[in-house]
């Protein structure tokens, strides 16, 4: 069996490698020539536990090829980005381009699966009409399904294999054909449904998380006003068997949770009131943090701020929609100097970036933990006592152990305390 995968990003590439590792012939397609160049030099475009080993093994088997052009195959998987445009609407141009690109290669009996996260009815109203141009009878000669990826960056490969999978077909046969394809590597249960339900399930999962985080953030703001410790309160509330409140923080980043709820708002603006409000609460958090920093240093002449963590969450090297970038941008609008450090990122992307903890803390007036990388949890601030000009620490993630720091003259501030 041959699979052609369009889009070799965070999901397309690992999926391609998993299929290839199971003996399927896989052809990956991407319009990013630099990415293809990297792959041909056996370099991965991003880091993810286990991915390098899988890549090395697959390359040896010669079951994985890649190029900017699709080819004939039995199944086609579209796994391209669906970014948000400036009006918070889904930009489906990559999905449309991919669909148009595969049309000349589609034959009787082929299956097309859309994995990208999309607004409801995209399969029915956008993808299917484009594929109809082949002249093949949809649902009888050409089978179409939606099967959203639902895996968490940082534990992607394990989740791809072990998580349950939702498959929404335009008809039963399409769903079943897609299920047979994914069974090559998916060990979780495969649930079959229709396309719109599958599209909505994906959006609902991420919206549920966004609303829960917004609630935690709102509780954190209430805690600051009413003077109690939100971290202790959440931990106690979560002792209840039916309560699971997530953590407050400097905002919600990543390409999924910060984006997907808008795809529902786009389709049902009058109904999606809570969803929109939650998005707005989470989008305001970087402003709240920047203001908190400004207040901490407002009596200090020419203050120096040190930001720890650029990526959108702990231990991943992904900066997409990272709240840290927003905090940095807001701080650059006020008269302070800012330095940033992220040991996970592994590359220099910003002028403000320095390469070591020593450097970022040198002469600082306020060290701000924005991302809860495991490495930051282990920082022994006492060792860096002399690097600080003013010993202020702001922990937005309840990340560090502040025991004994006050005795050494540190003022430790926290979000939600
Ligand atoms: N965050 C908080 N508080 C929390 C948890 C997360 O502020 O308690 C923040 C994180 O710091 C980060 C953002 O939310 O900035 C998103 O991180 P995440 O770990 O919640 O989620 P993602 O975006 O890495 O992955 C999500 C996952 N969805 C769900 O858990 C419902 C993943 O399973 C999806 O596959 C992925 O989105 C996706 O691709 O849609």
Automatic annotation (TrEMBL):
GO molecular function, one term: NAD binding
Transmembrane stretches, start-end: none
Entry keywords, A to Z: NAD, Oxidoreductase
One GO biological process term: polysaccharide biosynthetic process
Domain annotation UDP-glucose/GDP-mannose dehydrogenase C-terminal: ranges: 306-402
Xref: SMART domains: UDPG_MGDP_dh_C
Entry keyword annotation includes rRNA-binding: no
InterPro entries: 6-PGluconate_DH-like_C_sf, NAD(P)-bd_dom_sf, UDP-Glc/GDP-Man, UDP-Glc/GDP-Man_DH_C, UDP-Glc/GDP-Man_DH_C_sf, UDP-Glc/GDP-Man_DH_dimer, UDP-Glc/GDP-Man_DH_N, UDP_ManNAc/GlcNAc_DH
Pfam families for the chain: UDPG_MGDP_dh, UDPG_MGDP_dh_C, UDPG_MGDP_dh_N
Family stated for the protein in its record: Belongs to the UDP-glucose/GDP-mannose dehydrogenase family.
Protein name (Swiss-Prot/TrEMBL): UDP-N-acetyl-D-mannosamine dehydrogenase
Organism: Neobacillus piezotolerans
């Amino acid at each position: 069996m041959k699979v052609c995968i369009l889009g070799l990003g965070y999901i397309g590439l690992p999926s391609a490698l998993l299929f290839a590792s199971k003996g399927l012939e896989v052809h990956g397609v991407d319009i990013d020539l630099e990415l293809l160049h990297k792959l041909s030099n056996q370099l991965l475009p991003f880091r993810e536990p286990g991915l390098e080993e899988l890549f090395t093994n697959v390359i040896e088997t010669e079951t994985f090829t890649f190029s900017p052009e699709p080819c004939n195959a039995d199944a086609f998987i579209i796994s391209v980005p669906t970014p948000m445009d400036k009006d918070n609407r889904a930009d489906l141009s990559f999905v449309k381009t991919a669909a148009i690109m595969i049309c000349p290669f589609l034959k009787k009996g082929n299956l097309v699966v859309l994995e990208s996260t999309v607004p409801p009815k995209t399969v029915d109203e956008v993808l299917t009409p484009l594929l109809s141009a082949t002249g093949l009878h949809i649902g009888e000669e050409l089978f179409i399904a939606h099967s959203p990826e639902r895996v968490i960056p940082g534990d992607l490969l394990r989740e791809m294999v072990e998580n349950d999978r939702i498959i929404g077909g335009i008809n039963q046969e399409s769903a079943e054909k897609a299920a047979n394809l994914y069974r090559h590597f998916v060990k979780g249960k495969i649930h079959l449904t229709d396309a719109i339900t599958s599209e909505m399930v994906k959006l609902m999962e991420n919206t549920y998380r966004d609303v829960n985080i917004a609630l935690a953030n709102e509780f954190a703001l209430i805690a600051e006003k009413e003077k109690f410790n939100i971290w202790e309160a959440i931990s106690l509330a979560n002792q209840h068997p039916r309560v699971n409140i997530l953590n407050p923080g400097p905002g919600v980043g990543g390409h999924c949770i910060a984006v997907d709820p808008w795809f529902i708002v786009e389709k049902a603006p009058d109904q999606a009131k809570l969803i929109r409000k939650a998005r707005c609460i989470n989008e305001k958090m970087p402003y709240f943090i920047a203001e908190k920093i400004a207040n901490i240093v407002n009596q200090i002449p020419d203050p120096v701020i040190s930001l720890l963590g650029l990526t959108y969450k702990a231990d991943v090297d992904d900066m997409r929609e990272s709240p840290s970038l927003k905090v940095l941008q807001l701080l650059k609008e006020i008269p302070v100097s800012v330095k940033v450090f992220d040991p996970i990122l592994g590359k220099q992307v910003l002028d403000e970036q320095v390469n070591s903890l020593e450097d970022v803390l040198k002469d600082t007036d306020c060290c701000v933990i924005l991302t809860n990388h495991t490495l930051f949890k282990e920082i022994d601030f006492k060792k860096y006592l002399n690097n600080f000009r003013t010993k202020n620490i702001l922990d937005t993630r309840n990340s560090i152990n502040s025991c004994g720091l006050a005795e050494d003259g540190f003022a430790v501030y926290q979000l939600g305390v």
